[in-house]
Specification:
Order of helices and strands: HHEHEHEEHEHEHEHHE
Structural class: alpha/beta
CATH architecture: 3-Layer(aba) Sandwich
Radius of gyration: 18 Å
Number of strands: 8
Number of helices: 9
CATH topology: Rossmann fold
Helix content: 40-55%
Strand content: 15-25%
């Protein structure tokens, strides 16, 4: 199923909710003391946000890691088209990153920390930050209390670690970070570059490949997820957190 999931998402604008506007908004909330930071983008996918990081810090060194090689190839091709020369890709697992402690001024991860778990990722990546360095992540949270049973059960089945913004802030404090700022992704960030092209892809797969039971199951699940967002998006979203390491 993992390979089918990757195949379904390949060549789409994004592999999860987000937008260049939201990336740039998060970037605007950092107060770095250097114009040439070492930056690590974890779970970069095809790297639309990586390109924004490279444009923000043209004198910096941006290392982008993902486990899926085709995404890294897409990112490399994107950088070549735009003449970007300060992005370096590496096929790595976020569970075993091969970098020395205090290697980076900034660690960035959009929509991927859930793979480790939010508190686990906060703790595991912190030693890689230089003193006072920034961790910027987006994480799925409940944004209103008392979600209806249908959507609560859906996300608790798919992501048992889902919590409220207040719960996330508790994990952030325990892990030794200071919250610089946070904001909720706008609803359009779920659709413009993610659910809308993804819907077109699953419609195409339904016509061409739905005789395959595994494909059919993935189509049905993806359609259910989109329908849930159509119905219940008032109760949940991704939240960008801009964090600064305050203890080691």
């Amino acid at each position: 199923m993992d390979e089918l999931f990757f195949e379904l998402h390949e060549s789409l604008p994004r592999q999860g909710p987000g937008s260049s506007e939201s990336t740039r908004r998060a970037l605007s909330l950092l107060a770095l003391q250097t114009d040439s930071p070492y930056v690590l983008d974890i779970g970069c996918g095809p790297g639309k946000q990586t390109v924004e990081l490279a444009k923000r810090w043209p004198m910096g060194m941006i290392t982008a890691v993902d486990t899926h090689e085709p995404y890294l190839v897409e990112l490399e091709e994107h950088c070549r088209r735009e003449g970007i020369q300060n992005v370096y890709t590496s096929r790595e697992s976020m569970f075993s990153l091969p970098y020395p402690e205090q290697s980076f001024e900034v660690i960035w991860s959009e929509g991927a920390i859930y793979i480790m778990g939010f508190p686990e990722g906060l703790s595991a990546w912190k030693p890689l930050l230089k003193p006072g360095g920034y961790l910027v992540v987006s994480e799925l949270n409940w944004i209103r209390p008392d979600p209806p049973d249908e959507i609560r059960q859906f996300w608790e089945d798919e992501y048992p670690g889902i919590t409220t913004i207040e719960g996330a802030l508790h994990h952030i404090k325990l892990a030794g970070y200071e919250l610089e700022d946070h904001f909720i992704l706008p609803n359009k960030d779920w659709y413009t570059e993610y659910y809308t092209p993804l819907s077109q892809r699953i419609d195409q797969w339904k016509e061409e490949r739905s005789s395959d039971p595994a494909v059919k199951a993935l189509i049905n699940f993806t359609r259910e997820e989109i329908t849930m967002c159509d119905t219940y998006s008032r109760w949940y979203s991704y939240v960008f957190y801009i964090l600064r390491s305050i203890s080691h």
